[in-house]
């Protein structure tokens, strides 16, 4: 089959118009898809929040042994920090899901790629931030109670190690989460640029 | 969603270009379920982008941009799941297609096209649907010269693929 026959074939097929779209089913399509997106966003956040449940449980459990200013403060700090992680993730996911698609293919791919990278960076930042604040609070508390000594040095070293670990594990998690999609976008962008 | 917002213009726009939408679905999705899902996603994205639609832009380029962007970026990243509603309107092929495609040549052609890269498919589709080099450049974000050069390569590749797919 030569290229002219192929193109003729295409146009012949294109000449057959599908059944018209009616208002009811179109509305249903839009509503279903919008609901599906909301559901998927909520599901994703629920899963993320699930990872932090033990931390929330531990911080609330400390309150069971009695309310003191310190305990309440620590529990609130943990909840605020975890809330920050969840809100960051929610915003990042929303920005990815709602990235505008009315630009050229090249613009849309570039924008989506940058949203993915921004989401990854934001996630790592809040995740590491969580460890930094928790470690700093712990080290500060040790210093306040015992002054500078072996315990303080241990807490400081532990904090540094935890922060380094959180950065690495956060990046690995982000890579796992976005790698496939990112690779596909980069591959399409290469095709646009004529490199593939 | 406010039901009143689905205005007559949007429905008319969809219907004027429903053939193109179906062709995008057929070019980017393999089975009937995936095509239904993709059509649903495209219609949703078109509806979402409607407020930003500038009337001076040719509707066909606007429709193609959104449909192709959706097909290229959205479909593969989503996990596979059953459809929540049955969409009669999103039939895999037009009702009269079997009469036209008795030889199965149409499906063979689409199978060959689906073996091209995502961007190659977009470029070829726009060309086969009669868009000018300038319009294709606007849809994809590449120069007119680039469109011409790449199109000749893609056409040659398609010819080989059609022979291989037979």
Shape of chain A: elongated
Q: Compute the average pLDDT of chain A.
A: 85
Shape of chain B: globular
Tally of individual helices of chain A: 5
Measured as a percent range, the helix fraction of chain A is: over 70%
Question: Low-confidence spans of chain B: pLDDT under 50, at least 5 residues?
Answer: 79-100
Question: What's the oligomerization state?
Answer: heterodimer
Query: Low-confidence segments of chain A, ≥5 residues, pLDDT <50?
Result: none
From N to C, what is the helix and strand string of chain B?
A: HHHHHHHHH
Strand runs of chain B, count:
0
The first-to-last residue Cα distance of chain A is 26 Å
Short description:
By secondary structure, chain A is mainly α.
Please, could you describe this protein's structure?
Chain A is mainly alpha-helical and 196 residues long. Chain A has one domain. Chain A is built from five helices and no strands. In chain A, helix 3 runs antiparallel to helix 4 and helix 4 (105-146) runs antiparallel to helix 5 (150-193). The longest helix of chain A has 44 residues, at 150-193. Chain A starts with a helix and ends with a helix. The model of chain A has no long low-confidence stretch (mean pLDDT 85). By secondary structure, chain B is mainly alpha-helical. In chain B, 64% of the residues lie in helices and 0% in strands. Chain B has nine helices and no strands. Chain B has helices spanning 8-16, 18-28, 32-49, 59-73, 97-100, 105-113, 118-128, 133-140, 144-165. The longest helix of chain B is centred in the C-terminal third of the chain and has 22 residues, at 144-165. Chain B starts with 7 loop residues before the first helix and ends with a helix. Classes of the chains: A mainly alpha (196), B mainly alpha (166). At the A-B interface, helix 1, helix 2, helix 4 and helix 5 of A face helix 1, helix 2, helix 3, helix 4 and helix 6 of B.
């Amino acid at each position: 089959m030569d290229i002219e026959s192929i193109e003729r074939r295409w146009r012949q097929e294109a000449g057959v118009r599908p059944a018209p779209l009616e208002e009811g089913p179109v509305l249903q399509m839009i509503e279903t898809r919008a609901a599906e997106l909301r559901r998927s966003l909520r599901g994703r956040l629920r899963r993320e929040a699930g990872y932090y449940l033990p931390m929330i449980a531990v911080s609330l459990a400390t309150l069971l042994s009695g309310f003191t200013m310190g305990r309440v403060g620590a529990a609130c700090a943990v909840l605020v920090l975890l809330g920050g992680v969840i809100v960051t993730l929610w915003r990042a996911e929303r920005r990815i899901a709602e990235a505008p698609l009315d630009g050229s293919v090249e613009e849309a791919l570039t924008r989506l790629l940058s949203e993915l990278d921004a989401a990854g960076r934001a996630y790592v930042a809040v995740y590491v931030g969580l460890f930094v604040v928790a470690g700093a609070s712990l080290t500060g508390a040790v210093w306040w109670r015992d002054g500078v000594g072996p315990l303080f040095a241990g807490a400081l070293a532990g904090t540094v190690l935890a922060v380094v670990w959180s950065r690495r594990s956060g990046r690995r998690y982000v890579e796992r989460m976005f790698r496939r999609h990112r690779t596909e976008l980069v591959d399409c962008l290469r095709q646009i640029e004529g490199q593939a | 969603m406010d039901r009143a917002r689905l205005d007559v213009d949007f429905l008319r726009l969809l219907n004027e270009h429903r053939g193109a939408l179906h062709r995008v679905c057929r070019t980017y999705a393999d089975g009937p379920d995936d095509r239904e899902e993709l059509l649903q996603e495209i219609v949703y994205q078109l509806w979402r982008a409607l407020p930003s639609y500038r009337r001076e832009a040719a509707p066909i380029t606007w429709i193609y941009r959104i449909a192709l962007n959706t097909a290229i970026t959205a479909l593969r990243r989503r996990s596979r799941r059953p459809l929540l509603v049955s969409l009669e309107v999103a039939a895999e092929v037009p009702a009269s297609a079997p009469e036209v495609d008795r030889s199965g040549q149409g499906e063979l052609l689409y199978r060959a096209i689906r073996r091209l890269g995502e961007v190659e498919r977009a470029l070829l589709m726009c060309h086969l649907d009669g868009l000018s080099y300038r319009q294709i450049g606007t849809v994809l974000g590449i120069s007119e010269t680039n469109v011409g050069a790449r199109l000749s390569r893609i056409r040659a590749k398609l010819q080989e693929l059609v022979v291989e797919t037979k």
